[in-house]
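Q: I'm a student working through a structural biology exercise. My instructor gave each of us a protein and asked us to get a predicted structure, then write a short paragraph describing it. Mine is Septation protein IspZ. I'm not confident about reading structure output yet, so if you can add a plain explanation after the tokens, that would really help. Here is the sequence I was given:
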Amino acid sequence: MKDVFAKLAADFLSAAVFFILYVATDDVVLATSAAVAVAIVQVVYARIKGVSLSFMAYASVGLVIVLGGVTLLTNDPRFMFAKPAIGHFAIGVIMLKRGWMLRYVPPIVAETIPEYVTVAGYAWAALMFALGLGTIAVAMTGDIKLWVLYITVVAGGAKVAAFALQFVAFRFVVANRIRAARA
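A: Happy to help. First, here is the predicted structure for Septation protein IspZ. I'll explain a few features afterward.
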């Protein structure tokens, strides 16, 4: 679990640097330059340490560099604000694969209600696409406070709520199927 949080922190480090510097200084060039530099340093550090990076790590750095470059050219932070949307869309596309979620649920769920798990996988994909569209809509306002509220409360809360709903629904349906099979 500790390793998962370390990877998440590394994935969000450049975004956190951007956000903190932008809020503290209101300087798009400084915040963006620092975020791009942090992303590049992370890759160089990993290479020096001999750590192999995943495709997603390279994709994240690429996005920071590309969107950071556009942000620097236009002096407009909305491009950096839109970065999480690309992640949501990429994850949504991955979640369109039929049955992707079956390997992430307990065996009793996968064996008892595989059709529900498949439908839930598509629902997660739809949620990712909706959150991506919402991120772009909020990013286009250019309001950093609204963007932070959306990314943390709305997007984060929607994922937590979806997970909780799925957990309760799966428990209910599995319990009913097991009771029906015994009867």
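A: Here are two points you could use in your paragraph. Residues 82-183 form one domain. Helices lie at 2-25, 28-49, 55-74, 78-81, 83-94, 107-112, 114-141, 144-182. It's a good idea to check both against the output above yourself.
Q: Great, thank you!
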